[in-house]
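Here is a typical sample entry:
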Amino acid sequence: SDHMENICGYLMKYTNLVTGWQYRYFVLNNDAGLLEYFVNEQSRHLKPRGTLQLAGAVISPSDEDSHTFTVNAASGEQYKLRATDAKERQHWVSRLQICTQHHTEAIGKNNPPLKSRSFSLASQGSANSPGVQRRPSQNAVSFFNVGHHRLPTGKRVPIMQPDHLVDVREMMSQAEGQQRDLIRSIECLPASGHLTSLDQDLLMLKATSMATMNCLNDCFHILQLQHASQQKGSLPAGTTISWLEPKISLANHFKNGAAQNFPAEINKAASVREEQSIAEPCQLTREPEEINPDEELEDICDDKEDDLGAVEEQRSVILHLLSQLKLGMDLTRVVLPTFILEKRSLLEMYADFMSHPDLFVAITNGGGPEERMIRFVEYYLTSFHEGRKGAIAKKPYNPIIGETFHCSWRLPKSSVATDAGTNSSAHSPSEQVALPKDAEGQAEPDCYTVKFVAEQVSHHPPVSGFYAECVERNMCVNAHVWTKSKFLGMSIGVTMVGEGVLHLLEHGEEYTFSLPCAYARSILTVPWVELGGKVNINCAKTGYSASINFHTKPFYGGKLHRVTGEVKQNMTNTVVCRVQGEWNSVLEFTYSNGETKYVDLTKLSVTRKRVRPLEKQGPFESRRLWQHVTESLRDGDIDKATEHKRALEERQRNEERLRAETETPWCTKYFLKDGDGWVYHKPLWKTVSAAQTQQTDSN
C-alpha cells in the first residue's frame, strides 16, 4: 500500500513521574512491524533503546489533550507519546494503525484456525438444594469443584481468528451461566452453620469469579472492535479502543448480592432542598471573593477516622466492589460506597498540610540559603502526619468543580524560630506558644496570619489548585495537583501529579517541589495509608536541592512509613544535611557540622485553622456544600449520606452536560491556567512587584 511508509521523527515519551516527558527519536519500520526509538537521531545506527511489536497492538488517541496518544502492545507494554500538535499526532496514529492492521492480519493468515473446545465449571448444589455442608478439611474452592482444562505441554496456542468470535461468544455464554449458578448457590446457603453465605472464602470466590468474567467480556469487546475494523478496512480517525466501565452501578450498596434500591425520587427529601436550590454555576458570580480573616473562628471540628465498625459491617460490599474492578483500572470515574468516606473534602485535606504554620513561616527566617532549604525540608516532612485523620485509611470527598475552601491560621510571632547561629537552636519547633486569649477574633500586631484558599479547577481530569500566603513575611506557596487513582488488587494507589512552588520574596528565591504517591493498603481488613516514591525540592537561584525517598514496606520485614533524604549544594555536590526516620513518628536530622536533632511529630502541637461559620460561607464552599453528607456520616446514617452525595454528583453531571451542549467553557474563580499548571489570580509576588513599581515611580 502507498500508505505503508516508514516514518521517523521526534516525539515526547512519558517515562515515569520523576523523569516525566523526554524527547526521543522514533522510527516506524513497516516491513518488520516494529516501532523503535533512540535517544536522538544521531544514535539511530546503534541498538534501539526500546522496541514494540505492532501486531495485535492498539493505538489510542488520548482524551487528555489533542497531542497525546498511546501504543498498547499485545505483550502488555505501553508507550505514552506526545506529538507537537494535533496534525502530527493524527499522522503518526493513522500510520501506526495501518501498520498494526497489516501485521495483525498477516499473523491470522499464517496460523491455522483454533478448534472449538468445551469446558465446564461444575458446581454442586443449586438454588433448590443449598444445604450441602463441607467437611472441616474442605475449602470453598474444592466444595464448588472448580475444574480447569490444561493444554498438552509443548503445544503452542494458535492466534484467534476473527471468524471464530461466534464460538468464543458461545463459550463465554456457557461460562456466564455457570458463574451465575455459582453465585446463586453461594447466596442460597443458610445464614448459619458450618458453611454460610457469608463465609469469607466463598465471598472471595464470588468476587474473583465476577471480576474474571468482567475481564473476559472486556477482552471479547476489544476483539469485536478489531474484527469490525478489519472488515471496514481501517479504524476511523480518532477511534479509541479502551477498557469498558463496570457493568454494575458501583453507586449502589450490596449486601450478600442483594441490591439495596434507594428511592428513585430522592429530590423529594426535605434535607436536599438546599442542594437543589443552588443556582447553575454559570448563573453564580465567578468574581473572586475577598475573605476577611476577622470573620473566621477557630475550628472546633475534630472528626477522627478511627471507627472500624462501618468497614467491618460492610465487608461484603467491599468484596462486591472489588469484583467490579480490574488491576490498573483508573478509579477517577468510579463512584465508591459512602461508608468509606472521610468527613471532609479533599480541598480541606490539602489545608491540613499547613497545620504547623510556625514551621512554614520560619523558613524565610533562615540565616542563609542552606539554612532555608533545610527548614523547608523540615516543614515538608512534618506536613503529612496531620494531613491524615486517624489511623484508618478513608477517602475524602471528591471536590465538585467550582468548589472552594478558605481558612487561615494565626500564630504569635514569638512561636516562630528566628535566625540563629546553630542548627540545634534554629531547628527547635517542638515548644510552641499558644495563641493568647485576647488575640482571638482580632488581628494582633504581634501575630502572623497565614491565609489559604483552594479550588477545584477541573473535573476531568480532577485537578485542584491551592495557595497560601503570609503577607507579613513576604512568602507564599502555589500548587496544583491532579489525583490519579488506580486499583492495585488489595490496595489502591493515588499518584499526585503536579507541582508546587514556594516563593520567599524577601530573598528572591523559589523552591519547586512535588508530592509522593499514597497507597491505601489492606482494604479488605483494616485499611491504612502508606506513602511512597521519590520527590525533589529545588532552588535554582541558590543551587541547593533536596532528594527525599518515601519507602513502602517490603513484603517481608522492614519498617512502616520510613523516609530518607539529603540536602546538598549542587555546584559542589556536597551533602549538607541527611534525614531519616518515619514521616508520622520521629525524624532525625544530621548536619554537616556533626550535630543531630530529633523531631517527634507526635509531640508537635497543632495550630487549629480558622474557618468561617457555615451561615457565612458561599454555597460552593466545601463545608456548606457537603454539610448534609457530613452530618449523616456523623449520625451513622449511610443511606441518607448516600442520597445527599448522589444528589450532588448528579447535579454536577447535569451541569457538565449542559455546558457541553451549549459549548460553554467553565470559568474558574480564583485560579488561572498557566501552561500545564494553575496559578492563583492575585499571588503575593505580583502584589509586591506592583507595589515596588509604584513606589519607584513615585520617587
